[in-house]
Amino acid sequence: MNEAERAAVERFEREVMTPSMSSLVVLQFTASWCGPCKQLSPILEKVTAELAPQGVQLVRIDIDEQRIIADQFRIQSVPTVYALYRGQPVGDLTPYRSEGQLRQILEQLVGRLGVKGEAQALEAQVDPLLQMAEQVLEDGDAPRAENILRQVLELAPYHPEVNAALARALVAQQRGDEARALLDGLDEKTRKDPAVARARAALELASAAPVGDSAELEARAAANPDDLDTQFELAQAQIAAGDRDRAADLLLEIVGKDREWREGEARQRFLQLLEAQGLGDPWSRNQRRRLSALLFT
């Protein structure tokens, strides 16, 4: 082995093998004269840069400059792309040429191999604090939940679940304008997160709450049970008061009497109530079954 080959091996050990002990290394074999390589390179750069927080990195090997490495991998043509983890090839990425294909296969490898990057490390810090804040919020101490969540945001300012929980804490304190500004300021991708949709539903429910004497609504509703407008207004008052069970009962009663009342507004508000609670919540699942039984029997 001559000096150039020894340097290539040392570089490979430093830039590929050592990082692969903890990261997923995408190893691209290329050449200056390779047209398809030039087309693939920017795609690989973009995808690996996006997945870098998850522990993915890109290394290029020029087969003309580092022939000894290319020979060890028995490279017959370029571009050839492998994924390495803990010093071993774990995937041949050569057949994948589109951004979507490469992102999908790399995300699958990261998940299957349990690769830990900055994103996973951050999630490990954020998750217990987020769960604590959610429990505090559920227990009714919205100011304390807000304080916890604002501290978590210093660690993860773009975390969708943290931002969504903070918005719900603000809604619980009747600070709807602040919650709306927070949600409207999120980027497009974050706004599509289910947690943000839940916070938006909570905000819209709070914004629709009537202003006035709920006792007077109760009296009117009791005097005329078929007055669906009053029943609906009372349901919204119960939502504002935090009585989700009574609100759900009233909304389902309206749906049972007239499914298309106000173009299905009672049913829409009912589903919004479930979304604000969290669609995976046992209470929400039970209420959805009640709605299905009403609609399909």
Automatic annotation (TrEMBL):
SUPFAM superfamilies cross-referenced by the UniProt entry: Thioredoxin-like (SSF52833), TPR-like (SSF48452)
CDD domains in the record: TRX_family
One biological process term in Gene Ontology: response to stress
Cited Pfam families: Thioredoxin (PF00085), TPR_19 (PF14559), TPR_20 (PF14561)
GO MF entry, a single one: disulfide oxidoreductase activity
Domain Thioredoxin span(s) in chain numbering: 1-111
Keywords, alphabetical: Redox-active center
Entry keyword annotation includes S-adenosyl-L-methionine: no
InterPro entries: Thioredoxin-like_sf, Thioredoxin_CS, Thioredoxin_domain, TPR-like_helical_dom_sf
Keyword NADP among UniProt keywords: no
PANTHER family (UniProt xref): THIOREDOXIN, MITOCHONDRIAL
Name under which the protein is recorded: Tetratricopeptide repeat protein
Species lineage: Bacteria, Pseudomonadati, Pseudomonadota, Alphaproteobacteria, Sphingomonadales
